[in-house]
Specification:
single chain, 883 residues, alpha/beta, Aconitase, domain 3, Aconitase, domain 4, seven-stranded mixed beta barrel, five-stranded parallel β-sheet, 32 strands, binds 2-acetamido-2-deoxy-beta-D-glucopyranose
């Protein structure tokens, strides 16, 4: 499809498109994904030729041009999915009322709705916490209301094209996305293109580790994508992260992931894309990559992108076939040095040498190669964090003792405790597998662990035990004495059995500095045992290695680990990264996939048994307090309405600076005194059954009443934080909803006055829909949070900005004036409009005119439908090429 547009194609080959051509082969691969999507979706409306050229001209346009991005698919969770699906269902109603075919209303792109644990939590809460009589009723309520939502989802999955519902209990969203929904390439209408996604899950960015561009968005943004509107973003700056050198064999995935994260954190790359390249990348496994990608918030990058390569394909168990079809986008053999980046950060993987921490504090890191020398210096140093002050003549003390009839010796540095622990913050399977494979090779080489050393294995979860067992390493752990002692971080340290008396006596007799080694927790949990004075944190395989050596006073490079059949060095038995990755792919990942498939089947059985209507339009249940048909499409007409001027509006609210989305559309519980509570009570619900705003976002009546119902809302009409406002004509103080309702009944349009950064904070579904249904036509503020501005436009509310330097105060507004805004026949972006406030003053306008003109995105999509019988850009076949 690069050749789809001849003008552009001409430009690619001749450079005559001027600014763009020479750049294509040097574009970062993540930007090529943008470019491809822009060309494929170029309709001259949402995505224009100018957008394509801006992307092609990335070098000049980065951080400047606003560009559209049409992701291949949308990922929704059940909570965020409800309002989006309810709107589409309502649109079907509206279209049917006008005599058109409602079955044509569908999401524009594949939409996966994952009914994750948020439903299940409700169940388990009831099962485990409350078992009283009333609780049983409560539980029934939960079941009923979940049933209602599940039935609605079931209807959606049957009625809509492009909607796939993943049933409850299959897995967490990000897991299902990584393991089930992701593709190397998407294929539709014979076009093969790269997968990409926006999702309402905060872990969406993990997917970039698999070469799939994606990030998290709010529910309202994902709904816009479903309606066919691309995501709009500033063309990102891309920082190249070049990985060179080879990974130190003793380093684990965790060392590498944390090492790379640390480098990136120091690089100051907030708000940028990171793209990995260089000869070192292929050493990172798919799980390493997704972990790094998931840690984006730590270094404030928007995404960390690992272009598709052999490792990715192997993970997907794919041959290179689909990749070859995407070869122009993800070249495998070109010299990636040729790509341009804003900046290149080079990370030498060899520089990430393995460390242990100790002997007294976790922050005292010692390179493993330096361990012997460091311990020796600790013996000599005077007492402190790194000193035990053992006199010269006592440093060579040896104390013989008997254990189970055998004679052994203890010296300074002898290991007496070795605990392999897999904690939640250390759960990368490859690390435990490395330890297991090391144990296996040690046993095969005839090595043993001295029996007086207290060895233990705490796998952290049954899952870890399961994969250690299925990869076949568990028996070797036990042969070395590492028996499974239980699960969980909290217990693992305390669970270590006391040291043998003979060992304790020998330590006391020689005043010895003996050592405990512990993997897992990054914090010292306190000493392992009173008489063990040196405590080190090390990776699980190093714990095994030091246990076999029996001492920390060893230089693994120069000294053998022990003597089995032959003299054995650590490097002889340390498993290679390839071997570990292969084992991980074969046992852990394949069993996770298998497990997921099993749960999917079970989930589907459950799902198939849910009853739901077969109708094309949804049969709304008037009794439902969770799912209601929203009035967005009332009064819809086939004709596009001319922009309607606003005459004699009142200010509903007079707000200050930094009014956040939390003030506009509070989440959380529904206060008993609120209008939402009154509504629910009128529907015969008791306060216990109110549930939260979050759970009720499929009900516009609750959500509209909840708009501006935050008790923290500081409204200058009231003068103190409160969810109330002044109804100006009557002078009465009312709940915001009640005031708005009265204005609406009197036919009075509304505006909101605000200060700086209106609409900051997390995206919420109802931040624009709520004010729209309250009758708000414009928000006049000193400045807007960018995302919120586009949300307002999307609902047909005008975001108007005071001219620079002006504010409500500088214009001496009391808020009680009447506001009139005359709109010209046609609006152009960044146009200045006059807002008449008694005597005339000015506010500046900068809005996305087309969408605005037609009363917001929802109504626009529905109207286009009525006129043409199809949504805008209704699919490849109907799409006209760029002019
Ligand atoms: C990476 O570091 C190692 C050891 O410090 C060095 O030998 C190697 O040359 C470096 N590699 C590159 C590509 O800089
Ligand atoms: C990331 O952004 C947050 C908030 O914008 C800031 O507080 C923090 O210092 C940033 N961290 C880095 C590593 O840039
Ligand atoms: C390990 O797997 C074997 C067979 O697959 C099974 O019999 C055994 O119970 C498992 N052991 C553990 C500790 O899970
Ligand atoms: C519906 O349309 C009629 C006629 O165009 C108009 O008078 C009325 O105000 C509209 N109602 C709403 C809620 O927009």
């Amino acid at each position: 499809h690069v050749t789809l547009n001849t003008h552009l194609a001409h430009g690619f080959h001749t450079g005559q498109a001027g600014r763009g051509f020479f750049c294509y082969y040097r574009l970062p691969l993540s930007i090529r994904v943008f470019l491809e999507a822009a060309i494929r979706n170029c309709d001259g409306f949402y995505t224009t030729e100018g957008d394509v050229e801006n992307i092609l001209d990335w070098q000049q346009q980065q951080d400047k041009a606003e560009v559209p991005f049409t992701p291949a698919r949308v990922l929704l969770q059940d909570f965020t999915g409800i309002p989006a699906m309810v709107d589409l269902a309502a649109m079907r109603d509206a279209v049917a009322k006008h005599g058109e075919d409602p079955s044509l209303v569908n999401p524009k792109c594949p939409t996966d709705l994952i009914v994750d644990h948020s439903l299940q939590i409700d169940f388990s809460k009831c099962f485990f916490i409350c078992r009283t009589e009333t609780a049983v009723k409560n539980q029934e309520m939960e079941l009923i209301r979940n049933k209602e939502r599940l039935q609605f989802f079931k209807w959606c999955s049957k009625a809509f094209k492009n909607v796939n519902v993943v049933p409850p209990d299959v897995g967490a969203v990000h897991q299902v996305n990584l393991e089930y929904l992701s593709r190397v390439a998407q294929v539709s209408d014979g076009v093969i293109y790269p997968d990409s996604v926006v999702g309402t899950d905060s872990h969406t960015t993990m997917i970039n580790g698999l070469g799939i561009l994606g990030w998290g968005v709010g529910g309202i943004e994902s709904e816009a994508v479903m309606l066919g509107q691309p995501v709009s973003l500033t063309l990102p700056q891309v920082v190249g992260c070049k990985l060179v050198g080879s990974i130190n064999p003793l380093s684990t995935s965790i060392d590498i992931v944390l090492g790379i994260t640390k480098h990136l954190r120091q690089a100051g790359i907030a708000g940028r894309f990171v793209e990995f390249f260089g000869p070192g990348v292929s050493q990172l496994s798919a799980p390493d990559r997704t972990t790094i990608a998931n840690m984006c918030p730590e270094y404030n990058a928007t995404v960390s992108f690992f272009p598709i390569d052999r490792v990715t394909l192997k993970h997907f168990k794919k041959t290179s076939e689909p990749l070859s079809r995407l070869a122009h986008l993800f070249p495998q053999r070109t010299d990636r040095k040729a790509l341009m980046f804003l900046q290149v950060i080079e990370i030498n993987l060899s520089s990430m040498v393995p460390h242990v921490s100790g002997p007294k504090r976790p922050q005292d890191r010692v390179a493993v190669s330096n361990m012997k020398a460091d311990f020796q210096s600790c013996l000599e140093e005077k007492v402190g964090f790194k000193g035990f002050h053992i006199s010269k003549e006592k440093q060579e003390t040896r104390v013989p003792f008997l254990h189970c009839g055998q004679e052994y010796q203890l010296v300074h540095g002898s290991v007496v405790i070795a605990a392999v622990i897999s904690c939640t913050n250390n759960c990368n399977p490859s690390v435990m597998l490395t330890a297991g494979l090391l144990a296996k090779k040690a046993v095969e080489a005839g090595l043993t662990v001295k029996p007086y050393i207290r060895t233990s294995l705490a796998p952290g979860s049954g899952m870890v035990t399961h994969y250690l067992n299925s990869s076949g390493v568990l028996p070797y752990f036990s042969q070395l004495g590492f028996q499974v002692i239980g699960y969980g971080c909290a217990t693992c340290v305390g669970n270590t059995a006391p040291l043998p008396d003979a060992v304790v006596d020998a330590i006391k007799q020689g005043d010895l500095v003996t050592c405990g080694l512990l993997s897992g927790n990054r914090h010292f949990e306190g000493r392992l045992c009173d008489c063990v004075r040196a405590n080190y944190l090390a990776s699980p395989p190093l714990v095994v290695a030091y246990a076999i050596a029996g001492t920390v006073g060893i230089d693994f490079e120069k000294e053998p680990l022990g003597k089995g059949v032959f003299v054995v060095y650590l490097s002889d038995i340390w498993p290679s990264r390839e071997e570990v990755q292969q084992t991980e792919e074969d046992t852990v990942i394949s069993s996770v996939f298998k497990d997921l498939r099993g749960r999917m089947e079970k989930g589907n059985t459950f799902w198939n048994n849910i009853e739901s209507p077969d109708s094309v339009v949804f049969p709304w249940d008037p009794k439902s307090t969770y799912i209601r048909c929203p009035p967005f499409f009332s009064n819809l007409s086939k004709e596009l309405p001319a922009p309607q001027s606003i005459e004699n509006a009142h200010a509903l609210l007079f707000l200050g600076d930094k009014v956040s989305t939390d003030h506009i559309s509070p989440a959380g519980s529904i206060a008993r005194a609120s209008t939402a509570a009154k509504y629910l009570q009128s529907r015969r619900l008791t306060p216990r059954e109110f549930n939260s705003y979050g759970a009720r976002r499929g009900n516009d009546a609750v959500m509209t009443r909840g708009t501006f119902a935050s008790i923290k809302l500081l409204n200058r009409f009231i003068g103190k934080p409160s969810p109330k406002t002044l109804h100006i004509p009557s002078g009465q103080t009312l709940d915001v909803f009640e005031a708005a309702d009265r204005y609406q009944r009197d036919g009075v349009p509304l505006v909101i006055l605000a200060g700086k950064e209106y609409g900051s904070g997390n995206s919420r579904d109802w931040v624009a829909k709520g004010p729209y249904l309250l009758g708000v036509r414009a928000v006049i503020a000193e400045s807007f949070e960018k995302l919120h501005k586009s949300q307002l436009v999307g609902m047909g509310i005008m975001p108007l900005q005071f001219l620079p330097g002006q504010s409500a105060d500088s214009l001496e507004l009391s808020g009680k004036e009447r506001f009139s805004i005359v709109l010209p026949e046609s609006l152009s972006p960044r146009q200045q409009l006059t807002v008449k406030v008694c005597a005339g003053t000015c506010a500046r306008l900068r809005i996305d005119v087309i969408i605005f003109q037609h009363g917001g995105l929802l109504r626009y999509v529905a109207q286009t439908f009525l006129r043409s019988g199809s949504q805008p850009r209704a699919g490849a076949a109907e799409r006209a090429p760029c002019p």
